[in-house]
Amino acid sequence: MQNSQYSEEAFLAAVRLTKTTDILQRKHPLRWLPAIFLAVVLAWFFSDVARNPAFGWPVFGRYVASAEILKGLWLTIWLTCVVMILGFALGLIIAVMRLSNNPTLRAIAWTYVWLFRAVPLLVLLLFCFNIGYLFPTIVLAIPFGPIVYQIETQDLISTIGATIIAFTLHEAAYASEIIRGGILSVDGGQHEAAEALAIPPLRSLLRIILPQAMRSIIPASASLLIGTFKNTSVASVIAVTDLLYSAQIIYNRNYEIVPLLLVATAWYIVVTSVISVIQYFVEGYFGRSLVGNKQLGSVKNYT
Amino acid sequence: MMTTNPHAYSPIIRLRNIQKSFGHRRVLQGVDLDVGRGEVVCLLGPSGSGKSTLLRSINCLEKIDRGVIEVGGRLIGHELVGRRLRELTPRQARAHRVDIGMVFQAFNLFPHLTVLQNIIEAPIAVRRLTRSEAVRRADSLLSMVGLSGRAHSYPRELSGGQKQRVAIARALAMQPTVMLFDEPTSALDPELVGEVLTVLKDLAAAGMTMVVVTHEISFAREVADKVAILDEGKIVEFGPARQVIECPGHDRTRSFLSRFAWKASD
Questions:
Q1: Minimum distance, in Å, between the CA of residue B24 and any CA atom of chain A
Q2: Which of B20, B102, B157, B205 is deepest in the core (most CB within 10 A)?
Q3: B91, B92, B103, B110: best to mutate for the A interface, most A CBs within 10 A
C-alpha cells in the first residue's frame, strides 16, 4: 500500500536519514501484560500458601535438613547413580547388539527391549524382591552337568540388591533405545570414512561415532536420569529407606503428612534442578566443536 | 621402483568382470579395468552409470556380486578357496584397505575432532605410529595441501575446499599405494574447485596412482593418463584421456561429452 504522503521528496529525505540514523525498531509495549498478570496471580497464590497453616511450614523447616531425611536423600542419589551407570553399560551393549549384523543378537536385543519396556517398573521390582520364592537357590553349573556352586537366593540378593537389579533391567531397555537413536543420528558418511581408514569397529564406535551421537543422547538421557531419580520412590514399597520412605516413616510417627511430603518434594526439585544445570554444560561440551558456541541450544533461531 | 624393462606395463589395480546389482537394477554389468602404477585414471559418465559404485567396490565399501579385484598384487575382499572365491571376514577386508586411500564427495571429516586429530587418528590406531611420528607426518601433509597453521581448527571453521584438502591429507597419512576419489569437487562452490584440483594435480605429478570419479572434463583431459567412460554399468570407452575426450569413438561417449561442450572451451 502506498502512503498518501509519500512522494519523491520523502524518498530522498529517507535516503538522507540513512546516513545519520538507524531504522527505528518496533516497540512491544503489550508484551509485558501477560508477565504482569502472571506475577500478580503467583504472588497471590504464594502468599496464601505461606500463610495457610495446613502447609505446616514450621514443621517443614524442622525436618527439611534432618538427619533422617538427608540419609534418605543420600540413598536416593547413590541408588540413582548406580542404576544409571549399570543401566547405560547394559544399554550400550544392547544397542550395539541391536545394530549388529548377527540376526540372533539383533533378536535378543529386540526381545529384551520389548519385554522390559512392557513390564511396569513396580511389577518388575516386586518380582525381583520375591525372586527367592521363584528360585530358592541359585546354582552355578555346567548345563545338564555337575553343580559348581550353590547359594541361597535370600543370602545373595538383599532388598537393595533386588532394587538395583530391577531398576537396572528397566533402565537398560530405555537407555539402549536412546543410545541406538543417537548412533543412528550420526551421518552414514562417518561410518564409511572410519571404514575406509581401516579403523577397527570398537575404536570407531568409541572415538568417532559415540562422541557425535552424544549430542542427541544427552538430552534424552537427562530426562531418563531425572525420571529414574524420581522413580526410585517406587522402591519405598519394599521398604528401601529412600527419600520418600524416610519422609513416610516420619509422618507415620507424627501425622504431619503434608509438610513431610513437601520436604521430599523440595529435595526432588533441588536435585532435578542441579541435573538440568549439569545437562546444560554437558551439552555445551559435546556440542562445542559441531556448532558455534553462540548457537548452542538452538540449531536455528526461529523467533 | 626397479623393473628390468621400463616399458613393461604392470597394472597395480586389476578389475575383472565386476558385477553388482541393487535389487533388480544391475549397476555394474561385468567391468574390466587396469590401472598402471603411477597412472591417473578418470571415470566419467552420466549419473547412475555405476562409476561411484565401481570406485567404492575397489576398497570393499561396496560388496560386489561377482568379479575379481586385485590391488598391489593381492585379491581385495575375497580369497581363493579351492575353485571358488570366498568373502573375507571384516577384519581381513580391513587389513587390505589399509593401502587404499579414499576421498569422499561430502568430505566426511570427523566434525568433533580437530584437523590434526582427524589426520593422526588412523595412523595411530591402525598403523601403530607413535603420536609424535603421526603429528610430524600430519604437519608435512598439511603444508603439502597448503593448510599448515590450520591443524587446530575444527572442520566447521573451514571452507569446503579446505575441508576436502584436509580429507586428502587424512587419506594420505595412511601412506596408501592407491588413492580413490569419489567426485571430490562436486560438493564445492565453483570458486573452490580449483584449489582441490591443484592438490590432485600435485599428487599426480608426484607419481601417486589415482582413480578419480569426476565431472570435471577439463581436469580429466589435462591431468588423467586414461579415461574410462561408463554407461549403464559398462565401460563403453577406455583410452588415453585426450584421445577419448577430444575425438571419442563411441556414440554414447559423444552424446555424454557434448553436454560439457561449454566447459571444454573455457
A1: 23
A2: B102
A3: B110
Pairwise CB contact (< 8 Å): A189 & B106? yes
pTM: 0.81
Q: φ and ψ at B5, to 5 degrees? A: -125, 105
B17 touches B32 (CB < 8 A): yes
Measure B180 CA to nearest chain A CA, in Å: 10
Q: Evaluate the CA torsion angle A289, B133, B176, B60 in order and state its sign.
A: negative
Of B178, B168, B171, B173, which Cα lies nearest the Cα of B209?
B178
> What is the 8-class DSSP label of residue A22?
P
Q: Determine contact, residues B29/B66, Cβ cutoff 8 Å.
A: no
Give the tens place of pLDDT for each residue, A153-187. Answer: 777 778 898 999 999 999 999 999 999 999 999 99
Cell numbers standing for residue A23 = 531504522
Beta pairing partners, B71: B13, B74
| Contact status, residue B227 vs residue B41, Cβ threshold 8 Å | yes
- In angstroms, the Cα distances linking A83 to A236, A245, B39 are 16, 18, 59
- For chain B, domains (ranges, CATH) are 1-99+215-266 (3.40.50.300)
Facing B112 at nearest CB: one of A196, A203, A211: A211
Closest CB from B106, B122, B156 relative to A197 = B122
Q: What is the pLDDT of residues A178-221, one digit of tens each?
A: 999 999 999 999 999 999 999 999 999 999 999 999 989 999 99
Best of A187, A197, A299 to mutate (most B CBs within 10 Å, chain B): A197
Rounding to the nearest 10 degrees, give the CA dihedral for residues B123, B124, B128, B133: 80
Q: b/e per residue, A94-128, with b = 16+ CB within 10 A?
A: bbbbbeeeeeebeeebeebbeebeeeebeebbbbb
Q: How many CB pairs under 8 A join A and B?
A: 68
How far, in Å, CA of B200 to CA of B181, rounded? 9
Which chain A positions have a beta carbon within 8 Å of B170's beta carbon?
197
User: Is pLDDT above 90 for A21?
Assistant: no
Query: Is A198's CB within 8 Å of B126's CB?
Result: yes
B205 touches chain A (CB under 8 A): no
> What is this model's ipTM?
0.90
Q: Which of A180, A245, A187 is nearest to A217 (CA)?
A: A180
Q: What's the CA gap between B78 and A78, in Å, rounded?
A: 52
The average pLDDT across B4-28 equals 85
Q: Rg of chain B's alpha carbons, rounded to an integer?
A: 19
Residues near B249 by Cβ (< 8 Å), separated by ≥ 6?
Answer: B237
Distance separating alpha carbons of residues A191 and B76, to the nearest angstrom: 20
**CB within 8 Å: A187 and B108:** yes
How many residues does the structure list for chain B? 266
Record: contact B154-A289, CB cut-off 8 A: yes
Is residue B90 less than 8 Å (CB to CB) from chain A? yes
Interface contact flag, A198 B98, Cβ < 8 Å = yes
Residue A146 has pLDDT above 90, yes or no: no
- Write out the three cell numbers for B202: 600435485
pLDDT band at A293 (very low <50, low <70, confident <90, very high): very low
